[in-house]
Amino acid sequence: MVSEFNERHTSFNPCSQKSMDTVEDIVISGISGRFPESNNMRHLQENLFNKIDLITSDDRRWKLDHPEIPRRIGKINDINKFDTLFFGVHFKQAHTMDPMCRLLMEHAYEAIIDAGINPRQLRGTKTGVFIGACFSEAEKTWFYEKLQVHLIN
User: Fold this and answer.
1) Helix (H/G/I), strand (E/B), else coil: 60
2) What is the pLDDT of residues 108-137, one digit of tens each?
3) How many domains does one find in the chain?
4) How far is CA 60 from the centre of its chain?
5) In a domain? residue 103
């Protein structure tokens, strides 16, 4: 059984010269993040090592009497702060922009800086930023507010 497996799978070598010649280099060199009660990766590490509870029951984001909101939730600090001049976004647009979009711009920039790269040097290069994301709490909130307005009218 093992010899059959070896015979069938020894012909493929992902590190062979042929496969390496056709593969383009991919580098993941910078990282950024914001987490509950932690403004960056280092702050998160310190909080975790110090066993700080990052899930809180305060109502600084929502009134906790809403039936769909758990009593204790993790909240990101200062989601309404955004440097509109730095990112070239009009203040009125930034005010109505989903906070997730603002955070995305900030963290893409921070990840580039973390990689030790001057962002201006990337202009005109084949550089990509790949992001994993899901729905935003702001989108859900706006949807429910609009729904409630339409139901009242």
Assistant:
1) coil
2) 999 999 989 998 998 899 887 777 766 666
3) 1
4) 22
5) yes
Asked if residue 20 belongs to a domain, the reply is no
104 or 68, greater pLDDT: 104
- Measured over the CA atoms of residue 72, residue 81, residue 40 and residue 51, the dihedral's sign is negative
**Which DSSP state fits 146?**
H
pTM of the model: 0.63
Closest CA to 39 of 71, 79, 72, 73: 79
Q: Could you give the CA distance from residue 105 to residue 112 in angstroms, rounded to a whole number?
A: 11
* Integer Rg of the chain from CA: 23
Residue 46 domain-assigned? yes
User: What residues have CB less than 8 Å from 119, skipping those under 6 apart?
Assistant: 109, 112, 113
Q: Which domain holds residue 106?
A: 31-123+133-152
Letter for the amino acid at 50? N
In this prediction, residue 28 carries a pLDDT of 67
H helices within 1-67, ranges in order?
Answer: 2-9, 17-22, 41-49
- For residues 76 and 85, what is the distance between their CA atoms, to the nearest angstrom? 22
